[in-house]
Amino acid sequence: MPRAKCAIIATYVICTIFCIPVYITFTVSKFVGNDGAVMYRVDFSKIAQRHDKLLEKINFWLFSVITKLVPCVALTALSLGLIRVLYEANLRRQRLKNRAESDRSHDRTTRMLLAVLLLFLLTEFPAGLLALLSGILGSDFFNNVYLNFGETMDALALINSAINFIIYCSMSRQFRDTFALLFLPKCAKTQELTPITEPSRTVATTCV
Question: What share of the chain is helix, strand, coil (3-state, %, to 5)?
Answer without folding.
Answer: 80, 5, 15
